[in-house]
Amino acid sequence: MKLYACPGTCSLAPHIALHELEVEHELELVNLMKGDGQKPEFRELNPLGQVPLLVGEHGEVLTEVPAILIYLFQQYGQMDVPLYQSVRHLSFISSELHKNFYPQFFGKQILGKDDPSVPKLAQHFKERLEKRWEYVDYLLPAFDDLDGASMGTADPYLYTVCRWWIKLGHNFDGYESIPGFLKNMESRESVQKTLALEGLEPIA
Ligand SMILES: N[C@@H](CCC(=O)N[C@@H](CS)C(=O)NCC(=O)O)C(=O)O
């Protein structure tokens, strides 16, 4: 099994899952900043040039964080919640959290660093994410795949996007459940090991 990943990006989620489930694997780093994702040999595997990409033990090529996480937990672990709940949480993280970070990360790059729309766009998406963190905070106590205590499919993905929020200089002060979730995650050996391998600091 081989995981193509770029440190700190969404590929951190399946990387954590591989360590949590103790699945033997090879890690291939793709430096997105240096354009490795657009190299022909990688685009042959994923024409979009994105990580994560997992080559399974029977040579199956998988993209999409939610699909890779479900694959790993179904094959090498167990699902903490019914599949439809898992898909619900993973879809929420993917479409309502993950992708709403893009304007904050890449606003300057897309519009130009002096464009006056950049701060306005960043503020809009910050507020949009805040509403969604409130919802996550409310959901966390109810679901086993979202508490970080026993790791389920959605935990490593939620942890990954929470890291981005902190990285952007925001925090989770005032939220009831998210800080405990982050602590639970970072108390796990699999998370500590994966962070060390990707050269990342804990955030909790
Ligand atoms: N829908 C994809 C999104 C993957 C994605 O956005 N990957 C980012 C890193 S977090 C990436 O590779 N970006 C480089 C690019 O889009 O060129 C998934 O769920 O795996």
Give a verbal description of the structure:
The chain has 204 residues and is α+β, with helices and mostly antiparallel strands. The protein has two domains: 2-76, Glutaredoxin (3-Layer(aba) Sandwich), CATH 3.40.30; 83-188, Up-down Bundle (Glutathione S-transferase Yfyf (Class Pi), Chain A, domain 2), CATH 1.20.1050.10. The chain is built from nine helices and four strands. The protein has helices spanning 12-20, 40-43, 65-76, 83-97, 102-111, 117-139, 155-167, 178-186, 189-198; strands spanning 2-5, 26-29, 53-55, 61-63. The protein has a four-stranded mixed β-sheet with strand order 2-1-3-4, covered by helices on one side. Helix 5 runs antiparallel to helix 6. The longest helix has 23 residues, at 117-139. The model has no long low-confidence stretch (mean pLDDT 94). Residues 9-10, 32, 37, 49-52, 63-65, 94 line the site of glutathione (GSH).
Essential attributes:
204 residues, alpha+beta, Glutaredoxin, Glutathione S-transferase Yfyf (Class Pi), Chain A, domain 2, 2 domains, four-stranded mixed sheet, globular, binds glutathione
Task: Itemize the secondary structure elements and their pairings.
Layout: E1 2-5, H1 12-20, E2 26-29, H2 40-43, E3 53-55, E4 61-63, H3 65-76, H4 83-97, H5 102-111, H6 117-139, H7 155-167, H8 178-186, H9 189-198
Parallel strand pairs: 1-2
Antiparallel strand pairs: 1-3, 3-4
Helix pairs in contact: 1-3, 1-7, 1-9, 5-6
This protein binds glutathione (GSH).
Residues 9-10, 32, 37, 49-52, 63-65, 94 line the site of glutathione (GSH).
